[in-house]
Amino acid sequence: MTLAGQLLAYPLLEAETPGGRISYRRAAPTPVRQGPAMVLLHGIGSASASWLRQLQFLGREHLVLAWDAPGYGGSSNLPIEAPVAADYAGRLWAWLDVLGVERAILVGHSLGALMAAAATRGAPARVSRLILLAPATGYGAASAELRESKLRDRLNLLDTLGPQGIADKRGAAMLSATASAEQVAYIKGVMARIEPHGYAQAARMLSGGNLAADLAAIACPIIVASGNADVITPPAGCQAAAQAARTPWIDLGAVGHACPLEAADMINQLLAAAATA
User: Phi, psi at residue 20, to the nearest 5°?
Assistant: First the structure.
């Protein structure tokens, strides 16, 4: 069965929070075991569908929740044009409150790392462990010129190409040269369904984000991992994030940015071990 066909086993669900709707995917054993939920936060050009392999594997033993961030999928936009990571974190906790989740292992991929770190910093008692995969570090510590240039380039690309064009242009770069054609097609399909307004909001958050500052203020155990063939968040930036988190960088090998798919076995084993630590 194709990857897209396998995703049908995890249909989108919806939860209404005081700030707006969140769509998400869920996997769990029956009955649901006690312990922190595994909460998965996707990147800027992605969605809950990017966590297919984690839903399949980790959902056998744990409650796994993969959201569509505000402005993605069926999730409501945030009410401001230029949100910060803490705005996404607030919506995250409101969603988990509705679902009755008190404690979580937060897993952030790429831009989701900024959201996960802000959520951990804002509610440290609710996070047992923070796991960052191919983390985007944000441009908050960069010069105003660089921040504006990066944001302008990303928004111009969105205006010029649209979601499908971005997927066609950038989708393959999310994976290594040895990824399968099916993996590339799947990633492109997920990317092509981004919502322009939600993507633009996320781009503005990325422009002002400062992952290192949040990590320096977090006391819970942190894991940072990425592939050495990642050209979106290259190893040097991920290593710097690990240094800020006071933890070793874990090298996932010759895999690209979409490591939850391309390095699914390694990621799943890493997350499973973290859940039982």
Answer: 145, 180
